[in-house]
Amino acid sequence: MSRKASPSLLIGIHSVGSALARAPGQLRLILVAQEARNPRVRELVEQAGAAGIRVVSESRSLLDRRANEQRHQDIIAEFEANNIGSEKDLDRVLDAVESTPLVLVLDGVQDPQNLGACLRTADAAGVNLVILPKDGSAGLTPVARRSASGAAEVLDILIVTNLARVLRRLKERGIWLAGTADDAGSGLYGSDLTGPLGLVMGGEGKGMRRLTSELCDFRLSIPMQGTVSSLNVSVATGICLFEINRQRASA
Amino acid sequence: MSRKASPSLLIGIHSVGSALARAPGQLRLILVAQEARNPRVRELVEQAGAAGIRVVSESRSLLDRRANEQRHQDIIAEFEANNIGSEKDLDRVLDAVESTPLVLVLDGVQDPQNLGACLRTADAAGVNLVILPKDGSAGLTPVARRSASGAAEVLDILIVTNLARVLRRLKERGIWLAGTADDAGSGLYGSDLTGPLGLVMGGEGKGMRRLTSELCDFRLSIPMQGTVSSLNVSVATGICLFEINRQRASA
Which residues is A162 bridged to in the sheet? Predict the structure, then answer.
């Protein structure tokens, strides 16, 4: 994947620890508060040292400023993601997929916590590639990364300017696009989801955009009961992805 | 269900609107900012008036104080929940269930947003009853209610002091308890989930407590791929509940 220009931040013990464990090569620098007393922070500093990552002690107030009001627990890491690409990386990433491709397209998830939860879910479901439109989507902010629990640093993620063109390319490559919508289509459980598939989830309020929706080959709906009109997007993503995996495992 | 002593708050357009639509009988009073200009707020005020609910105009700064830093969008409602009970309501609620019972037990979900998302998911899955331990669980705070998108006002919810005793009572009533754990048991998809069932989800970090775990009749595990070690509790809840529904619909 292509390198991004400026380093991003991982904030707090859990985020830094996940990256150290799973993607240490992305870490450029670790900032630790001089006042740090938490043994877990000391452990991470030792791990970082052993991995050859530069560790700098700073005042807690400097970390406060860098963390911009987020709880940093005396540790922040600067990193350069090597798992984030753009449209031009699409073919290369798909060529490397050895199993039946499973792609997740998030068309306009705007809440960073929801985005992170979707990524965490995608990783747990073995998704090969996540596609986000550059406009109208939450970014991979520290909040999103924290909510992703490490998935944002390991999943192949493409941030694309022209989502429609990317969806057409997926179709050219034999990947069927399954949209999701409250309004219907065939039920999730009545559809054959065992082939190469791109699952397209809409954003929190409005769902998929019109053009995105038109490009989908079929629609899935989750059979709803109760009085609530919709599911949280990360929950709906999990239900769909794990149903795909269930079908594939029993196919 | 028994009435709680002091009124709780619903904060913001979405929370107040959901309750007005689904549980207007619980609303005692609506506070609107004198400065309110949003037509959606005016609509809610009209709806409330038509439903005979008292509406009081106050300064925005008073609403700021009542909302305690949460974004209130110029509207707050006081309500008395009539869907929240305790252990003594268990038999009555179960007696009223006409279908095969589906109970959700959340053993120590501590983040209010996660609790809310679990409730929203439970409602969408047609859960008959949600059981929360009084200690070690997030409360039904305004944040939890907002995240539940209306489900917290309509679901039957029991907040119990002695969870083990309640679980034993469920078993006496022929409801099997299915625990969830990362460490194993039979897979989610290999278990027969079509009978009367209580799904027991653990909290975010530690999972189910030991005693809770020992009371479960069997364990379910969600087959995980990728590098992330767990799913968000509301996502895991959704995957399990909708798999239960899928099995029941095809049984």
Answer: none
- Per-residue pLDDT tens digits for A55-71: 999 999 999 999 988 88
Closest residue, chain B, to A222 (C-alpha): B242
Q: Which residue is it, tokens 């029991």?
A: B158
Q: Taking residues B145-159, what's their average pLDDT?
A: 92
Cβ-based neighbours of A172, under 8 Å, separated by 6 or more = none
> Model's pTM, two decimal places?
0.86
Burial bucket for residue B73 (CB in 10 Å: 0-12, 13-18, 19+): buried
What is the predicted pLDDT for the residue at A186? 66
Min distance A61 CA to chain B CA atoms (Å): 24
Residue type, A130: V
Nearest to B227 among A123, A237, A239 (CB): A123
Q: CB count, 10 Å around CB of B92?
A: 11
Task: Calculate the CA A208 to chain-centre distance.
Answer: 18
Q: What is the DSSP letter of A28?
A: E
pLDDT at A5: 41
- Measured in angstroms, the CA of A109 and the nearest CA of chain B are apart by 16
For residue A229, the model assigns a pLDDT of 67
Mark out the alpha helices in chain B (DSSP H runs). Answer: 13-22, 39-50, 60-67, 90-95, 112-124, 142-148, 151-154, 163-172, 210-215, 233-250
Q: Which of A147, A228, A246 is the closest to B120 by Cβ?
A: A228
Q: Which residues neighbour B134 within 8 Å (Cβ) at sequence distance 6 or greater?
A: B159, B160, B161
Q: Do A154 and B226 touch (CB under 8 A)?
A: yes
Cβ of B121 and A231 within 8 Å?
yes
Considering only CB atoms, which chain B residues are within 8 Å of A227?
22, 123, 150-151, 154
Which backbone phi and psi does B191 adopt, to 5 degrees? -105, 145
What number is the average pLDDT over the span A48-56?
A: 93
Which residues from B are below 8 Å from A97, CB to CB?
Answer: none
DSSP assignment, residue A140?
Answer: -
- A95 — phi, psi (to 5°)? -60, -30
ipTM of the complex: 0.84
What SS3 class is residue A186? strand
Q: Which of A222, A225, A237 to mutate to test the interface with B (most CBs of B within 10 A)?
A: A225
